[in-house]
Amino acid sequence: QVGWYNAVLQPAFHLPYPDDTLAFVVLSTPSMFDKALKPFVTKERLKIIRDPVDQCISHHLSRVKEKFPDQRVDVMFDYEMLPSRKPKFLAQTAAHVAGAAYYYQRKDVKLDPWGKKKIFGVCIHPKYGGWFAIRGLLLFPDIQVPFLAQPAPADCVSTEEKRIELLEQFNFHWQDGRYRDIIEVKERYSEEQKAYFATPPAERLRLLGLS
């Protein structure tokens, strides 16, 4: 429900829908790279003009919309901004309230060791750890689900020590990706996928053989 999201945020970030509106958070798992991105790039190679991942996600979500010809379906992407430069939606908060992944933040640590440092939070998935991404929201404005039960996200980094380690690694050593393996994971990015996301966006097309 949109109301679960709006309830935990300041009004400036609220989604403009009634509280019991149905919404889905869209995640990409490690296999997205081989199962969706590479086939999309091969097929659409002459039409890739922006970021291949963004265009791939947009393509697949537009296909989801086509499955509901009689419904209004609004799509928001994780990279979209409002004119005020605020993001259209806060992806990690949405994932947490939907029960998809636990959003670990500074407030989840009782004995805060960081003083005046700014500490960003990070979502961890119970199966993929940090090896996943939140890509968008699908909203169904004409479908109300007042009796939908809110699922709690799996608290898979449950000790104080592990939470501190996670936030330290994410905030100060995110480039090495160690935070992604804070828990035992079932699947992670392939070496090719790691190389792709570690490459500056302007050079990624070359990696995929597009330039």
UniProtKB/TrEMBL annotation:
GO terms for cellular component: cytoplasm. GO terms for biological process: cobalamin metabolic process. CDD domains: MMACHC-like (cd12959). It holds the Pfam family MMACHC. InterPro entries: MMACHC. Its main location: cytoplasm. Keywords: Cobalamin, Cobalt, Cytoplasm, FAD, Flavoprotein, FMN, NADP, Oxidoreductase. GO terms for molecular function: cobalamin binding; cyanocobalamin reductase (cyanide-eliminating) (NADP+) activity; demethylase activity; FAD binding. It catalyses: apo-[alkylcobalamin reductase] + methylcob(III)alamin + glutathione = S-methyl glutathione + cob(I)alamin-[alkylcobalamin reductase] + H(+); apo-[alkylcobalamin reductase] + an R-cob(III)alamin + glutathione = cob(I)alamin-[alkylcobalamin reductase] + an S-substituted glutathione + H(+); apo-[alkylcobalamin reductase] + adenosylcob(III)alamin + glutathione = S-adenosylglutathione + cob(I)alamin-[alkylcobalamin reductase] + H(+); 2 cob(II)alamin-[cyanocobalamin reductase] + 2 hydrogen cyanide + NADP(+) = 2 cyanocob(III)alamin + 2 apo-[cyanocobalamin reductase] + NADPH + H(+). It is found in: Cytoplasm. Belongs to the MMACHC family. PANTHER family: CYANOCOBALAMIN REDUCTASE _ ALKYLCOBALAMIN DEALKYLASE, METHYLMALONIC ACIDURIA AND HOMOCYSTINURIA TYPE C PROTEIN. This is Cyanocobalamin reductase / alkylcobalamin dealkylase. It comes from Daphoenositta chrysoptera.
